[in-house]
Amino acid sequence: MKIVIVGGVAGGATAAARIRRLDESAEIIVFERSGYISYANCGLPYYIGGVIKDEGDLTLQTPESFYRRFKIVAKVHHEVTDIDAHDKTVSVTDLKTGKRFTESYDKLVLSPGAKPILPDFYTENERTFTLRTVEDTLKIHAFVEEKQPKTAVVIGGGFIGLETAENLAERGVKTTIIQRGDHLLPTVDCDMASFIHANFRHHGVRLLLNANTNKMGIIGEKVSLDLAGEKQLNADMVVLSIGVSPENTLAKKAGLELGVKGAIKVNAKMETSIADIYAVGDAVQVKHFITEQDAVISLAGPANKQGRIVADNVCGLNSEYKGSQGSSVIKLFDMTVATTGINEAQAKANGYAYEKIILTQSSHAGYYPNATAMTVKLIFEKGTYKILGAQIVGYDGVDKRIDVIATAIRAGMTADELKDLDLAYAPPYSSAKDPVNMAGFVADNIKKGVVKQFYFEDIPALRESNDVVLLDTRTPFEYMRGAADGFINIPLDDLRARIGELDKSKKIYVMCQSGLRSYLATRILTQNGFDAYNFAGGFRLYSSIKNEEILSKQCYSCGMEK
Fold first, then answer.
1. In 217-237, which positions are buried (b, 16+ CB within 10 angstroms) versus exposed (e)?
2. Average pLDDT over residues 547-561
3. pLDDT tens, 60-117?
4. Which of 83, 202, 232, 396 is deepest in the core (most CB within 10 A)?
């Protein structure tokens, strides 16, 4: 059996290696358009920042090592330009010599990946970059080393854009991020993104949110960007990172059926619409595990799994892809942000009736040194308590908590069942009641009617009502340092003695720093005949969102040139 694979990296290289492990006699040829057959795509920004110092560390396999280990022929700088599905051949161009030839196949695997989206205003020049391949990162790295830029603009606030901005800033380059939407990292909701914004500003990165770029040009040794509102921004370099689209040129020419965003349609076995042609990775359409809708999810984990599944099916084993749920984690300076499933905005868009929990917990036992705070947002379906997704922003231990929740989703657990998970505990690593357990406890309390919640977006209407009391149960010192408008202060420890100051005819909406003391206050109030509600997220979340509302308005115009 002869297998031709178009594209290496995560999906193609994984498929090739797995096929060899299953079939020692198969003839396997991989054609890769770039100069690298298998490389650490997700590590590219860290070479720019000097975290990864050796260029060779980006390369997982070379054509030579691939052949020595797996007896797989890998040809880099070779582009497959056409597929003849009837004769089962592909047309190949050697990009170095220009030589063209055809290669036959019994099975064909497409792993072309995705291509950067270039906006209408894009002007190609030596100071403007995209970041998708090793060649791209080498080009940026060389520019930074040789030209020593003082200023940079990153257009786009997704994974690659933020990692690139972080690494440029860490090298001392004054960096600005331009984001068309109202917050960075669209995989999280706007409330959780407020922590990310504060972190970037703390590290000297300027954010221009709700900003549209209309024009790009070169003025001397500067890239000039014209933004909506007659504003201009000049920088020594610009990195475009506004997203990617499936690389479907070859599939389209071959007549393969395409789907969402032009991605290649495949079934659960990763088979395309033409027999003996498979496709994997960023170029394919998948089913979202939560919504069961068609989606394009460009992540390394799914691509690797799909490569293995293709290999199984090519070699006669029966494997199916169960869908993607978009689990991800990203380091942003000293902060970690992780997600799985869908966020609140997606839940609304998909018509879910949902409930959300927002709580702040410590990364490990508070009495053990260096515990850090993490904010957990859990979204679940009303009635069924099916977990729809989670977002966590913090420092230590964020990654393992999101993985626990991702596993719970895959296992079909409900939000309240998180309380039952038997998770490892020692003071340096966790608390006896892990943050994931705590999210389960809150869900269980909601399910049993023990607690009722209110949210940031509810507060403006509550302030206008004469039928409510807004209560802050933090200490007088905490309250003095900053409080939400309209909230009166009765510390939790004084509440029983001062409960007579509150009007039982009014609903009581309670806030504290993290949500724990306000929850305890609602239990006291409820059992004394009050109708009480707990603020999800605490003043820590409230102040982060409010500060962001102020700063985002101020920072759009700061430093801009008319």
1. eeeeebbbbbbeeebebebbb
2. 64
3. 788 999 999 999 999 999 999 999 999 999 999 999 999 999 999 999 999 999 999 9
4. 83
- Rounded distance between C-alpha atoms, residue 221 and residue 415, angstroms: 55
Residues 380 and 371: their CA atoms lie apart, in Å, by: 28
Residue 348, number of CB atoms within 10 A of its CB? 11
Residue 391 lies in a domain: yes
Chain-centre distance for alpha carbon 486: 36
**142 with 110, same domain?**
no
Residue 436 and residue 458 share a domain: no
> In this structure, are 409 and 345 located in the same domain?
yes
Can you count the helices (H) and strands (E) in the chain? Answer: 16, 32
523 domain-assigned: yes
**Is residue 437 domain-shared with residue 469, that is, in the same domain?**
no
The DSSP H or E segment spanning 20 is helix 9-22
Radius of gyration over every alpha carbon of the chain, rounded to an integer in angstroms: 27
Task: Domain count for the chain, please give it.
Answer: 4
Left if phi > 0, otherwise alpha if psi is -120 to 50, otherwise beta: which for 227? beta
Tokens of 40: 């650490």
- Cβ-count burial 310-344 (b if 16+ within 10 Å, e if not): bbbbbbeeebebebbbbbbbbebbebbbbbbbbbb
Helix (H) or strand (E) holding 439: helix 435-447
The terminus-to-terminus CA distance of the chain in angstroms comes to: 65
The C-alpha torsion from 221 through 223 and 226 to 227, rounded to 10°, is: -140
Structural domain ending residue among the three candidates 447, 464, 480: 447
Tell me the C-alpha to C-alpha distance, in Å, between residue 335 and each of 358, 385, 393, 397.
Answer: 18, 30, 7, 11
- Return the number of other C-beta atoms located less than 10 Å from residue 54's C-beta: 8
Structural domain including 192 reads 128-242
The pLDDT tens digits for 294-324 are: 999 988 899 999 999 999 999 999 999 999 9
Q: Hey, which residues are catalytic here?
A: 42
Place of tokens 């997606």: 346
- Phi, psi at 64, each rounded to 5°: -70, -45
Structural domain contains residue 557: no
In this prediction, residue 557 carries a pLDDT of: 46
Residue whose tokens read 């498929």: 15
Measured CA to CA, the distance from residue 361 to residue 298 in angstroms comes to: 31
Looking at the structure, tell me whether residues 470 and 498 fall in a common domain. yes
CA 193 – CA 132 distance, rounded (Å): 25
Cβ–Cβ < 8 Å for 329, 402: yes
The sign of the torsion formed by the CA atoms of 398, 399, 400, 403 equals: positive
Under a CB-based contact definition with an 8 Å cutoff, are residues 286 and 303 in contact? no
CATH number at residue 389: 3.50.50.60
Number of neighbours of residue 244 by Cβ within 10 angstroms = 19
pLDDT exceeds cutoff 70 at 466: yes
Residues 370 and 435 in one domain: yes
Angle at 278 between CA 272 and CA 283, to 5 degrees: 80
pTM score, whole prediction: 0.93
Place of tokens 């960023």: 282
* DSSP-based helix, strand, coil % in the chain, nearest 5: 35, 30, 40
